[in-house]
Amino acid sequence: MAKSIKEIAQELNVSKSTVSLVINHKAQQARISKDLERRVLDYVAKVGYKPNSLAKSLATGRSNTIGLIVENIGDSFFGPFALYVEELLRKKNYHVLYSSTLGDPQNAQDIIDFMLEKKVEGILLAPTVNLDEHQRKILENKVPLVVFDRNSPEVATHYVHIDNGDSSRKACSYLQSIGCENFGLITIDSDQPQMLARKEAYLKFCEETGMKARILQLPYRRLRQKGIAAVRSWVSKNMDLDGLFFTTNYLCILGLKSLRTEGGEHFNFPLFSFDDHELFDILNPKISCIQQPLEPLAKTCVKVLLKEIDRGITSPKEYVISTNLIKR
Amino acid sequence: MAKSIKEIAQELNVSKSTVSLVINHKAQQARISKDLERRVLDYVAKVGYKPNSLAKSLATGRSNTIGLIVENIGDSFFGPFALYVEELLRKKNYHVLYSSTLGDPQNAQDIIDFMLEKKVEGILLAPTVNLDEHQRKILENKVPLVVFDRNSPEVATHYVHIDNGDSSRKACSYLQSIGCENFGLITIDSDQPQMLARKEAYLKFCEETGMKARILQLPYRRLRQKGIAAVRSWVSKNMDLDGLFFTTNYLCILGLKSLRTEGGEHFNFPLFSFDDHELFDILNPKISCIQQPLEPLAKTCVKVLLKEIDRGITSPKEYVISTNLIKR
DNA sequence: TATCTTTACTAATACGTTTTAGTAGAAATA
DNA sequence: TATTTCTACTAAAACGTATTAGTAAAGATA
User: Fold this and answer.
1) CA–C1' distance A43–C25 (Å)?
2) Fold for domain B63-156+295-322?
3) pLDDT of residue A22
4) Do B99 and A86 count as a contact with CB atoms less than 8 A apart?
5) CA A211 – C1' D28 distance (Å)?
6) Does at least one atom of strand C sit less than 7 Å from the CB of B35?
């Protein structure tokens, strides 16, 4: 069905080398006559030759594929992010081998092994916890690695991310500017660095402004079962609250559910979320938030990774993308 | 860095064949002594040998990769769907090469060419318009193809989908059962077969029950700009409406925006959506819907595709997945 | 002891490409 | 005319694996 270079060569009575050179636009440098070049080109077009990219990759060592590893391709952050990445890479003639780890290090292991076997030319990774060894392994294999969204402080990699502390600070100032004098923070009981940074910035803000800090840490593991009740009871114990700052969008949604009365009316103070959500623009009251700009994030990741692939691995750098404050 | 079979063979003073056979668990059938087998196995484990899957694929003709082509991996249907597919395939030791066409046939062309070059063993495709030729090309290349969600009536392929007509009918009956005697349909001005089927079923329902049919067709191309106003004016011209049936979830969301008054109160009749959405469970009033069961859908797609890969291409069949009616 | 079997391997070829060194013949130089 | 240079190619090796036919040595059979 699909013809090989060998067959084409035989049918044209020339050598495989000739055909290969012509196809790869090296006819000139290899002094193939214009005449023969045309003949090959025409024939190749006529039979609709498609190179076997496995063989090609084996010979050249280039797979034209990069790996994208996220926690869950189905979620509202990684899905659209992946789309941007794909678009950007398509323009550079690269394609994406993606995988979701679902937070399971064993999955991550399998995925990375598979990608290394497939000889991806670089990997874009949003690490979940306990992926230090995995990252080291990638680097040991001399495969360029760019980490985004989160990182492991223990392992030195290129790292593209937003400034969590600064963004959190902006959020606090905004709440203050719209009249909140006693707003609390609802976060998650987890030591993900980005969550810690968001909390720290809130604490610093309190210190500076003299506002009393009130923090609720929800359990990461049994959030769905315990979260709603926890928020409800905490809020009712802190009746002087006049605003809430959630450190991520799913917490904010959970908060919404918690604070709605049976009748359907809502609480009567502003909510603010870190990370946007389709919901926030539709609900009433609308919810302001810090928005991570997906496109710049994706652009930077791709640019840095391609540079590494092109010029060889360089010493790790950080790239900080600034966030938007969406007022609603 | 990464050792090859050749190097391992040299270091052990045996032939490449021996190493290869042992690695592939063919030691017994090739009468390699238990002793040597152990020696090879141990050494291979010790140096952490990882096969080069490009070479492997070239030799065996199997890439252990399947292609998944959707319109937009970032959306709330395809994203989670892709996750299921990935999970299911992981168990069978397959991986996914995915791509989003964004509805552009040229993109689709590039993607398919790339996948064929990569020697994917099968393709899972949710076709957008004008992809008939593309599908034929895949089949000509003897690559198993399973089409889902939508299909092109012009080209015969395995086709996994829900029963749009029947589901739409269920929706109508449900609205009737909760007291709606004059509900309208809001759909999109496009000839996608699934949309047509949903509309037809509504019309048939009207005919059978004697209900007056009222249909608003929104413009596919300039939906965002024109949609909200169009819904608003149409509803106000049809004051006797007592329910709305949206043929897809983004239309329903658009409807929500349209029908909300400035004060934040809602219209006072039931809304029903085809396709579920995270929102519908959270909003007040909650919105009932027809839900496409992603997991069974993904399972069937994967099962059918793997069977084709295993046993060779068979004559096209249809697989209908039944939907759920979610009452809220 | 000559022949057949079995055991335990290995040599060789193939997969489809890229790439480099080589070469036959023509043309130019001395 | 003998040597060098150039032209237009091609042969061969390499990438890393899988697979099949083959083989030497040992053991079994007659």
Assistant:
1) 27
2) Rossmann fold (3.40.50)
3) 96
4) yes
5) 96
6) yes
CATH C-level class of A62-156+295-321: alpha beta
Q: Residues 280-309 of A near strand C (Cβ < 7 Å)? A: none
pLDDT at B267: 65
Which CATH superfamily hosts domain B164-291?
Response regulator (3.40.50.2300)
Tell me, what DSSP letter sits at residue A211? P
Specify the pLDDT at position A261. 54
The helix/strand/coil state of B98 is strand
Q: How many A×B Cβ pairs under 8 Å?
A: 117
Evaluate whether A5-51 and A62-156+295-321 have a shared fold: no
- Residue B57's nearest nucleotide, by CA–C1', is D17
Contact A279 B284 (CB under 8 A): no
Q: What is the pLDDT of residues A301-323, one digit of tens each?
A: 999 999 999 888 899 999 999 99
B54 touches chain A (CB under 8 A): yes
Q: Is A100 on the interface with B (CB under 8 A)?
A: yes
Average pLDDT over residues A237-253: 91
Q: With an 8 Å Cβ cutoff, are B142 and A1 in contact?
A: yes
What is the pLDDT, as a whole number, of residue A264? Answer: 44
| pLDDT interval class at A8 (50, 70, 90) | very high
Which amino acid, residue A4?
A: S
The domain spans of chain B are: 5-51, 63-156+295-322, 164-291
Range B5-51: architecture per CATH = Orthogonal Bundle (1.10)
| Residue spans of chain B under pLDDT 70 | 1, 260-267, 284
